[in-house]
Amino acid sequence: MFSKFAYYILVLPLSYLPLCVLYLFTDFFYLLLLLFIPYRKKVVRQNLQRSFPSKNKQEIKKIERQFYRHFTDILAEGIKNLTISKKTLSKRLVVENKEIMEQLYHSKKSVLLVSGHYNNWEWLITSQNTLFQHQAMGIGMPLTSKFWDKKINERRSRYEMKVVNSKNLKESITQENENPIAILILSDQSPSDSRKSYWMNFLNQETAVLFGTEQMAHEYNFAVVFFKMIKVKRGHYKMVLELITDTPKQLNWGEITEAHTHQLENLINEKPQFWIWSHKRWKRDIPTDLNELKMEQKAKFENRYKRDFD
Question: What is the pLDDT of residue 66?
């Protein structure tokens, strides 16, 4: 009952307000976060210190303040995303080099469009099917609240983005086998199983990385395109595409994962305030037999996709 009340009486009506008015609310919320409500401050501070060991306390605190400033902007933009129009989205999110996706589409090549929770990913989810000729598809991670899960995904898919459950992904891909698709993947979440993760150095620490992008690329022979989401100014973003590979079967175990993760790392190092530092990204323990695990993973991968390495 409370979820319905919050959605219909508070959040949805707010989304019809101009973005400049929503920013006024979140400006106030930013001050609350900074001065009175230490939202995950310990997590944010620890993540920053571990990721940038060479930075001093003043530098870490500066990034922290900039992060909370950006975080509240993302809240305003997330609320606006519920009702934002195609026309407004097209002005606020533009693609700099769309020709990369156009060439892949005309070659009938499906794509894994990969990046992380950097800058505004919600506007991309909503507008992806209007930006590219590929049928847009997103892998939905169910929210705890069934009500909010249903409503958020309804809003995300109103411009023909297909949001599918990870359990039904294979079936959904098969159904689209005649049409090139572009699956949006935000690959920087913490994996649920440390022993099924790809372990690598990311932001100066050993990190478990989701391996799904690489596995899908080999399984379905999909191209992999990394996208940079660049903040031009408040409420305006530019998307820049970088082709990682359109021949994944020619690459060895780990190459795709290393490539897109390092691309994200470069973005974060350049402007760290635009990544979501409040997420408990490094909560998985490093396996004590990590070297042996890597050898086992590599052998299984090469055995499964042996045709790729012959």
Answer: 97
Question: What's the burial of 120, exposed, middle or buried (CB within 10 Å: 0-12/13-18/19+)?
Answer: buried
Per-residue confidence (pLDDT) for residue 5, from 0 to 100: 83
Residue 307's pLDDT is 58
235: phi > 0 → left, psi -120 to 50 → alpha, else beta; which? Answer: left
| Closest C-alpha to 220, from 261, 185, 259, 194 | 185
Nearest Cα neighbor of 134 from 171, 179, 192 is: 179
Secondary structure of the chain as H, E, C letters: CHHHHHHHHHHHHHHCCCHHHHHHHHHHHHHHHHHCCCCCHHHHHHHHHHHCCCCCHHHHHHHHHHHHHHHHHHHHHHHHCCCCCHHHHHHHEEECCCHHHHHHHHCCCCEEEEECCECCCHHHHHHHHHHCCCEEEEEECCCCCHHHHHHHHHHHCCCCCEEEEHHHHHHHHHHCCCCCEEEEEECCCCCCCHHHCEEEEECCEEEEECCHHHHHHHHHCCEEEEEEEEEEECCEEEEEEEEEECCHHHCCCCHHHHHHHHHHHHHHHHCHHHECCCCCCCCCCCCCCHHHHHHHHHHHHHHHCHHHHC
pLDDT of residue 99: 97
Averages of pLDDT over each 10 residues, the chain, 310 residues: 86 96 96 90 97 98 97 97 97 97 97 97 97 94 82 92 87 83 95 95 97 96 98 97 97 97 98 97 94 97 75
